[in-house]
Amino acid sequence: MDHDDAGAPHTVEAFYERLRHDGHGLPKRLRQCADYVAAHPDKVAVSTVAELAEAADVPPSAFMRFCQELGFSGFSHMQKLFREEYTQKWPNYATRLTKLRDSGNDTPAALLAEFAEAGRNSIENLARTVDAALLDEAVAILAQARTIHLVGNRRAFPVASYLAYSFEKMGIPAILHSGVGNLKLDHLLARGDAMIAISFAPYASDTVELAEEAERRGVGIVALTDLPTSPLARLDAVRLFVPEIDVGAFRSLSAALTLAMAVSVAVGAHRRRHKNGK
C-alpha cells in the first residue's frame, strides 16, 4: 500500500484506523511490525527502532519500511506521535514485570503476585480505554437480537463459555458454538440474530470463519479482540478492544472476562427494561 499522498496519521486513533483498513494487506514482516506496535504502544514511545525490531522479530530495515508505509518520514516521526499521546496514558507496567522475570523468582507466590498485578493493570487499562459509545451500541444490538451466538475458541473459550452461562441464567436465548463432537451449528445463523465473536492473537481460524459466515448472513456482530489488525476488526462489527498485560509468554483473561461480565449484565438489564416498558 502507498500512503505518501495521504500523509502520516496525526493521532494514534487515526494510526489504528489506518491499520484496521490496510494492515491486512501488508507483507508478512510489516504485519509483524503492525501487530507489535498495536499491542505495545507504550514501548514505541520509549524504545529504539532496533529494540522494537528485535521484539517484533524483524530486521530494523523492516521496521523503518513499516513507518514509511504508514506515511511517516521515518521512525522518529512515528515515535513522536506515540510519545505525545501515550507517555501520560500508559504506565510502564511491563518494566516491573520484566524485572520480576529477570530475577528468576518463579516460585508460586511470586507468580501469583505477577498475575494479580497484571490482571489489575489490564482491568484498569480497560476502564480507561473502552469506548462508551461503542459499548452502548454493542449492548443495544445484543439486547434486540432474537438469539445470541457465541464463539471464542482456544484461549478465548473461557470468555465465550462464561457468556453462555450468564445468558442462560438470565433466560436470554444464546447458542455456544463450541465445536464439541465436531458438530457444526452454522445453519442456525439467521438475520435478526447477533453474535459475540472473541479471539486474541494468535487468532483462531474457526472463530474468524464463523464470524465471516455470520456477516454474510446479515447477523449483527460484536467483536471482542485485542488489536486493530485482528481479522475480527475487518468485519462489519462493533469492535471492542481488550488490553491484557502479559506475564512472560502468558496472558490472563482478566480484562476480557470483566468486559464480558459487564456486557452480559447490561444486555440483561436492557431487555428487562424493554419488557417492563420502561
Automatic annotation (TrEMBL):
<dbReference type="InterPro" id="IPR047640">
    <property type="entry name" value="RpiR-like"/>
</dbReference>
<keyword id="KW-0805">Transcription regulation</keyword>
<dbReference type="GO" id="GO:0097367">
    <property type="term" value="F:carbohydrate derivative binding"/>
</dbReference>
<dbReference type="InterPro" id="IPR000281">
    <property type="entry name" value="HTH_RpiR"/>
</dbReference>
<dbReference type="InterPro" id="IPR035472">
    <property type="entry name" value="RpiR-like_SIS"/>
</dbReference>
<keyword id="KW-0472">Membrane</keyword>
<feature type="transmembrane region" description="Helical">
    <location>
        <begin position="249"/>
        <end position="269"/>
    </location>
</feature>
<dbReference type="GO" id="GO:1901135">
    <property type="term" value="P:carbohydrate derivative metabolic process"/>
</dbReference>
<feature type="domain" description="SIS">
    <location>
        <begin position="138"/>
        <end position="275"/>
    </location>
</feature>
<dbReference type="Pfam" id="PF01418">
    <property type="entry name" value="HTH_6"/>
</dbReference>
<dbReference type="InterPro" id="IPR046348">
    <property type="entry name" value="SIS_dom_sf"/>
</dbReference>
<dbReference type="GO" id="GO:0003700">
    <property type="term" value="F:DNA-binding transcription factor activity"/>
</dbReference>
<feature type="domain" description="HTH rpiR-type">
    <location>
        <begin position="13"/>
        <end position="89"/>
    </location>
</feature>
<dbReference type="GO" id="GO:0003677">
    <property type="term" value="F:DNA binding"/>
</dbReference>
<keyword id="KW-0812">Transmembrane</keyword>
<protein>
    <submittedName>
        <fullName>RpiR family transcriptional regulator</fullName>
    </submittedName>
</protein>
<keyword id="KW-1133">Transmembrane helix</keyword>
<keyword id="KW-0804">Transcription</keyword>
<dbReference type="InterPro" id="IPR009057">
    <property type="entry name" value="Homeodomain-like_sf"/>
</dbReference>
<dbReference type="InterPro" id="IPR001347">
    <property type="entry name" value="SIS_dom"/>
</dbReference>
<dbReference type="InterPro" id="IPR036388">
    <property type="entry name" value="WH-like_DNA-bd_sf"/>
</dbReference>
<keyword id="KW-0238">DNA-binding</keyword>
<dbReference type="Pfam" id="PF01380">
    <property type="entry name" value="SIS"/>
</dbReference>
